[in-house]
Every structure is written in structure tokens, then in C-alpha cells.
TrEMBL record:
<dbReference type="GO" id="GO:0003985">
    <property type="term" value="F:acetyl-CoA C-acetyltransferase activity"/>
</dbReference>
<dbReference type="Pfam" id="PF22691">
    <property type="entry name" value="Thiolase_C_1"/>
</dbReference>
<feature type="domain" description="Thiolase C-terminal">
    <location>
        <begin position="254"/>
        <end position="394"/>
    </location>
</feature>
<keyword id="KW-0808">Transferase</keyword>
<protein>
    <submittedName>
        <fullName>Acetyl-CoA C-acetyltransferase</fullName>
        <ecNumber>2.3.1.9</ecNumber>
    </submittedName>
</protein>
<dbReference type="InterPro" id="IPR002155">
    <property type="entry name" value="Thiolase"/>
</dbReference>
<dbReference type="InterPro" id="IPR016039">
    <property type="entry name" value="Thiolase-like"/>
</dbReference>
<dbReference type="InterPro" id="IPR020615">
    <property type="entry name" value="Thiolase_acyl_enz_int_AS"/>
</dbReference>
<feature type="domain" description="Thiolase N-terminal">
    <location>
        <begin position="13"/>
        <end position="232"/>
    </location>
</feature>
<keyword id="KW-0012">Acyltransferase</keyword>
<dbReference type="InterPro" id="IPR020616">
    <property type="entry name" value="Thiolase_N"/>
</dbReference>
<dbReference type="InterPro" id="IPR055140">
    <property type="entry name" value="Thiolase_C_2"/>
</dbReference>
<dbReference type="Pfam" id="PF00108">
    <property type="entry name" value="Thiolase_N"/>
</dbReference>
Length: 401
């Protein structure tokens, strides 16, 4: 396994404030307006003035989707804050953009470059048709044969079918993921969808790419989330409520994994590597026992089941049993996606990773309201952000001090 794992970041950086817009079709807000809303909420939560921010990282995949220029780089962050001269770095890394932005900001603080920094994940995906946005880029890059007719549901449907044939997973198992996440999302005030569904609803919905139907697929959406990071030793001087970053580890594999002879299609190598690196930093041998709550990248229902296995919550092939037995529910032994996940928030690419961190931040501080789960056992949460065709992944571990 290539890549170096180090505990140089462990407990060196705190998250002292976070903010998040409602996710959905935000036609009443521009790219800049929704970004500023998230930033202002994070500043208020941290109880600091914007002048304390020494640098910023913007995670956005394709800001010009919504005609949001300026925004191709980080200049708009300095503009909306009214802070000319602020160093702003734009990060883009497929669907893992948000967590990668957070990761790089944490590195800068841990290295002693800055004391207090801002991370903003921001994206508008609903101002144009889906085929004019992300898919337009994906189908014009990559493998010259595989790209023909390529869709995200089509790629993940391959994995669903292989998992079914290999382990006996059923469409009903996939449906249980959607039912759970809609139940949770109906209780989260910032989710896009507030609607509970049944297994029959999922099974009878229009087919998108067999075996994935409408309710198996995450929608696109608009949204922004922001985080204020600072040196861990400085955090108690600024606020009484904060969490520490225990580990943020990343792995990247080939973007052409679906064409490899060695590709099993029953898991994500990038997730497995990133998770093992994060667990090594935190000294975790048994993730199921060591983690209280997890927010994972459920772009499709099959993805969440694969995540259970790749993150080590259960052995390979037992992901369907995990959802069947209710072990990932709000009342389960490891609640997964208590917010409703991407399934109910939608997936504004650059914002999702920061939004998922916001969910775990609220959970660990006991502020998650109707979706709150017990976190007293370990005081530790996990965030998993998967990107592209499963080719890049960031796994973060956070805990209360």
C-alpha cells in the first residue's frame, strides 16, 4: 500500500465552528450568497470575527455550472468576506473535493502556517440540466470506449449487480438503505427531502439503470457548508465547544478501474486504503467498536452497503446483513448517515464533504436534535467522502476533546 501514514496531524487541529445552508434547489440564492450564508453561520458558531481568519480553502468542482463567475478560483471568497489579500486556495478532486479542501486546510494549521483558517465547500448543480454539468465533463474524458454512453448510475449498477451475484444481496436490501436514509432525512431541517418512503415505494419506482431505480440514486442539489479550523491549543481560548481532528487520510487509485481485469466490482480500493490509514493513525483495530456515528458517501444505495464493508464495519459480503438487521439505523450499534446522507441532502459536489463533517460535528457536540444518536461510548465520529468512479477517497476521524 503506497502512501505514508503519520500521526503528525493527530489532535493538532480543532474545528471550532461550522455552518451549513439548507440543501436543495436554491434558485433564490446565488453561488456567492449561499457561500456567504454558510460562512457567516460558521463564524457565529465559532464566536469569532472574520478578521481572525488568516487563510481560506474553497472546495468547488465546477462553479461555472450556475453561471457563477467569478468563482473559478478562490477570489470570490475574499470578495464575499470583504478581505482583500486573504490567501485562498481552490481545491477540486471529484466528489471528494470538500473533504480534500478540509484536509489541506488542516495540514496548513498543523504545520504552523496559520492559527485560524476557513474551509468552504460550495456548489450549485441545479441551474442547468444534469447532462450539461458533471456528465458533460465525464463523458468527454477518460477511456475512449467506456465513456460512450457512460452514466454514474450505469457504473454503480455494475457494482450492484456483481454484489448481488456474488453475495446474494437483493433489491430489497438496497431499498432498505433508501428507506433508512429517508426516515433520517425527514428529521433533519436542512435536508433536501423531507419524505419517508417504504420498500415498496423503492421497488416500484422507475428504473434508472437496472437494478438501481429512482430511489436508489442521489439527486444533484445546491448547497454550501463551512468550517472554522484552528490550532488545538488555541481552541479553548476561543470557544467552549469544539472537536478535534484525529486523522484525515486520502487514497487515489486509477480512474479507469472499471476496465481493469483485476477489478472485482465488489468494493472500493480507495476507501479501503484511506480507512486503514486513518485507523492506523487513531490506533483503531475494530472500527465497529471504536466509532459511534458515521456519515458516509451514499451516492447510490449500493454504495452505502459497499461502504459498510470497505470501512471495516462488517466483513466483505455482509453489508446487506448490516442494513437488514437495522445495525446502521439511528437506534443501531453504529448509526450511519443519521442526516439522511446524500440520498436526502442531494450532492452539490464541492459541498458534500464539508456538509458531512458538519453532521458529525453536530452529533459529537450533542446538537443534532431529532437525529441525535448516542456518542458517549467513544466520542468519535467518521466521515467518508468518495470521488469519481470510486477512484479517490478521503476518510476523516473526529472526536470530542
Amino acid at each position: 500500500m503506497s502512501g505514508r501514514t503519520s500521526d503528525a496531524l493527530r489532535d493538532k487541529v480543532a474545528i471550532i465552528g461550522m455552518g451549513c445552508t439548507r440543501f436543495g434547489v436554491l434558485q433564490d440564492k446565488s453561488f456567492a450568497e449561499q457561500g456567504l450564508e454558510a460562512v457567516n453561520e460558521a463564524l457565529a458558531d465559532a464566536g469569532i470575527e472574520k478578521e481572525r481568519i488568516e487563510a481560506a480553502w474553497l472546495g468547488t468542482f465546477e462553479p461555472n455550472i450556475g453561471g457563477s463567475f467569478p468563482g473559478y478560483a478562490g477570489d470570490f471568497v475574499a470578495d464575499i468576506l470583504g478581505m482583500p489579500g486573504l490567501p485562498v486556495t481552490r481545491v477540486t478532486n471529484y466528489c471528494a473535493t470538500g473533504m480534500d479542501a478540509l484536509r489541506n486546510a488542516a495540514f496548513a494549521v498543523a504545520a504552523g502556517m496559520y492559527d485560524v483558517v476557513l474551509v468552504l465547500g460550495n456548489e450549485k448543480m441545479r441551474d442547468v440540466a444534469s447532462r450539461d454539468s458533471l456528465i458533460r465533463q465525464v463523458v468527454t474524458t477518460g477511456h475512449p470506449i467506456v465513456q460512450k454512453g457512460l452514466t454514474a448510475p450505469g457504473l454503480f449498477a455494475l457494482m450492484a449487480r456483481r454484489h448481488m451475484e456474488t453475495f446474494g444481496t437483493t433489491r430489497e436490501d438496497l431499498a432498505l438503505v433508501a428507506v433508512k436514509n429517508h426516515y433520517n432525512g425527514n428529521r433533519h431541517p436542512k435536508a433536501m427531502f423531507h419524505k419517508e418512503i417504504t420498500v415498496d415505494d423503492v421497488l416500484n419506482a422507475p428504473m434508472i439503470s437496472e437494478p438501481l431505480g429512482l430511489y436508489d440514486c442521489t439527486p444533484t442539489s445546491d448547497g454550501a457548508a463551512a468550517a472554522i479550523l484552528c490550532r488545538a491549543d488555541l481552541a479553548p481560548q476561543l470557544t467552549d465547544e469544539y472537536i478535534l481532528i484525529e486523522a484525515i487520510e486520502m487514497a487515489t487509485v486509477t480512474g479507469h478501474r472499471y476496465g481493469r481485469r483485476s477489478e472485482s466490482l465488489i468494493g472500493f480500493e480507495a476507501t479501503q486504503i484511506a480507512a486503514q490509514r486513518a485507523y492506523a493513525v487513531a490506533g483503531i483495530d475494530d472500527p465497529l467498536a471504536a466509532i459511534d456515528v458515521a456519515e458516509v458517501h451514499d451516492c447510490f444505495t449500493i454504495t452505502e452497503i459497499l461502504n459498510y464493508e470497505d470501512l471495516g464495519f462488517v466483513p466483505k459480503g455482509e453489508g446487506a446483513h448490516f442494513i437488514r438487521e437495522g445495525r446502521s439505523s439511528l437506534e443501531g450499534d453504529l448509526p450511519v448517515n443519521p442526516s439522511g446522507g446524500l440520498k436526502c441532502f442531494g450532492h452539490p459536489i464541492g459541498a458534500s464533504g464539508v456538509r458531512m463533517t458538519y453532521v458529525i460535528y453536530e452529533q459529537l457536540l450533542g446538537r443534532a436534535g431529532a437525529t441525535q444518536v448516542p456518542t458517549e461510548r467513544n466520542g468519535r465520529g467518521l466521515v467518508h467522502n468518495l470521488g469519481g468512479p470510486g477512484s479517490v477517497c478521503v476518510v476523516g476521524l473526529y472526536h470530542r476533546p
